[in-house]
Design brief:
The chain has 148 residues and is mostly helical. The mean pLDDT is 80. 82% of the residues lie in helices and 0% in strands. Helix 2 runs antiparallel to helix 3 (57-84) and helix 2 (28-51) packs parallel to helix 4. 14% of the residues are buried.
Length: 148
């Protein structure tokens, strides 16, 4: 009886995730790759923090929360944009966003592997941080040009 209730509870937890994926017409294979890269990057992050003596439960909890936000953010953004009419659920915007996030997670995992192998604590480069910085710089340049 206890096993059945756990299965039902787990199913109810994943129901909103599965619903969002189907409503946004996200390629399930790409989403599965994305989730696998998140798990790999998180696991390598734990190994890296243990190796360099910076492991703590507080950092672990923050890492779990960050990964949950990384999983949920593109789905919420996609649902908001679809409901508001900015995008059509069939245009692939959310799948493209998930591909970008998957690339970011993959790069982070590779850097963690290299840091573990080389025994040097390299900082993880963030592809998204670089992209948002370029976008911000372009917007600031537009304000300079049109603002006088």
């Amino acid at each position: 009886m206890l096993l059945e209730s756990k299965v039902i509870a787990n199913s109810l937890l994943f129901l909103p995730l599965i619903t969002a994926i189907s409503l946004l017409n996200i390629d399930a294979f790409i989403f599965q790759i994305y989730l696998n890269l998140i798990v790999i990057d998180f696991s390598l992050g734990i190994v890296k923090s243990i190796r360099f003596g910076s492991f703590s439960i507080a950092v672990l909890k923050a890492g779990i929360l960050t990964k949950i936000i990384i999983i949920v953010f593109p789905l919420i953004l996609g649902l908001i944009l679809v409901v508001s009419g900015f995008i059509n659920s069939m245009d692939g915007f959310t799948t493209g966003l998930i591909k970008l996030l998957a690339i970011n997670e993959g790069i982070s995992a590779v850097y963690s592997c290299v840091a573990i192998i080389d025994n040097v604590n390299y900082p993880n480069p963030s592809l998204l941080r670089k992209i948002t910085k370029k976008i911000r710089d372009k917007i600031e340049n537009l304000f300079k040009i049109f603002g006088g």
